[in-house]
Design brief:
The protein has about 280 residues and is mostly beta strands. Among the domains are: about 35 residues, no CATH class; about 45 residues, no CATH class; about 100 residues, Sandwich (Jelly Rolls), CATH 2.60.120.640. About 0% of the residues lie in helices and about 50% in strands.
């Protein structure tokens, strides 16, 4: 049989063991069995090992995500739901239950901010005079392009003849034919794209110099030449696999050009495989 004695304050009880009663039922001798009753035994409450309350009698679970319910006899179930993120791209769900966001890329920097906040910095892309996309064999020229919606600007630029300027609401493509060094000796001179090949025919024998256009041109590629020696000595203009429109002559694989200080520009017509004077 267990006997109980009310403790001071009337809120808790202690159990008594080894109880000795006299004939009238008065406790003569007993051993304290420890506190019981509404408060139960005390519990040392800690947070990650650090004491919070060394003699707590009640645990109160708070917060909208925490639910405490009665379970089996003597058991209280405490439910703490897990948290997840719905990762979206312009409103479309990409990952419905993500628990980690990993930001990658050289232009992304993540730093801690105020408590509960991570700052994600994405570096702005620099505006350059064109985007170098590599070389275009077999000519070896470098080409630059910028795509704006459905409109694409493309420019062949082996030299400093192309300037691509971008503003928040406007894209401007400015091109200029760069002047080359003057060729004044016999032989074959390759005429580069988007440059004006200068030549001096005054010291040359007739047809001793050939101005050769690039092989395998792309639609709308452009080349240009200019005679600077004020000479009528003719030179050969060669299409290098494509026909070339001449001055007062029909298109042909090549033609002879002998006009002083003449400046001509050709644009490649891929439908007819012809360099046309423009």
């Amino acid at each position: 049989m267990t006997f109980f004695a009310k403790k001071a304050g009337g809120k808790r009880y202690q159990s008594l063991t080894n109880v000795l009663l006299d004939i009238e039922g008065t406790v003569v001798e007993a051993t304290d069995g420890g506190p019981i009753g509404p408060g139960g035994n005390t519990i040392a409450v800690q947070d990650d090992g650090a004491p919070v309350n060394p003699a707590a009698t009640t645990l109160n679970f708070t917060g909208t995500g925490v639910t405490a319910t009665n379970g089996a006899p003597g058991v209280v179930n405490v439910a703490i739901p897990g948290t997840s993120l719905d990762v979206q791209d312009d409103g479309s769900s990409i990952v419905a239950a993500a628990d980690t966001l990993n930001f990658t890329g050289g232009g992304v920097v993540v730093t801690p901010g105020v408590p509960g906040v991570a700052n994600v910095a994405v570096a702005a892309a620099p505006v350059q005079n064109g985007l170098n996309l590599g070389t275009n064999p077999p000519n070896g020229e470098v080409f630059s392009s910028l795509n704006a919606g459905n409109l694409e600007f493309r420019a062949i630029a082996p030299g400093p003849g192309i300037a691509l300027v971008q503003t928040p609401s406007l894209i401007i493509l400015r091109s200029a034919l760069v002047l080359t060094a003057i060729r004044s000796t016999a032989g074959v001179q390759a005429v580069p794209l988007m440059q004006r090949q200068l030549y001096d025919a005054s010291a040359l024998a007739p047809l001793a110099l050939t101005l050769q256009f690039p092989a395998g041109p792309q639609p709308d590629d452009m080349v240009a030449v200019k005679e600077v020696g004020n000479s009528f000595v003719p030179v050969v203009v060669n299409g290098n696999g494509a026909n070339v429109e001449g001055v007062f002559t029909p298109s042909a694989p090549s033609f002879n050009l002998g006009l002083p200080r003449v400046a001509l520009t050709w644009q490649y017509d891929s439908l007819g495989n012809i360099w046309r004077i423009v």
